[in-house]
Amino acid sequence: MNSPTANTTNYQTSNLQLQLGFINYIQRLLVEGDFSATYKYALLHALADCAVEYPLDDERASLCIKFDSLVDKFIELYWHHATPFAGTTGTNDLLLQNAGKQSKVISELNYCQSKNIRTLNALKQSQYWHSIQKATLQTLKEGPLWRLQKLSKVDECFLYPHVKGKTFITLNPGIAHCFRRFYDLVVHLARNAWLLKIQSIKQNQHIIGAQSQLYDFLFGCDRQNLAKAVPVLFEIQKGNCFYCNKPLGNSKQVDHFIPFARYAHDLGHNFVLAHGKCNNAKRDLLAAPKFKDEWINQNLVIHEKEITKALESYFYCDAAKSLAVSDWAYDTVASSKGHFWHGLMPAINSARTDYR
Ligand SMILES: [Zn+2]
Question: How large is the angle between the packed helices 39-53 and 183-200, nearest 10 degrees?
Answer without folding.
Answer: 160
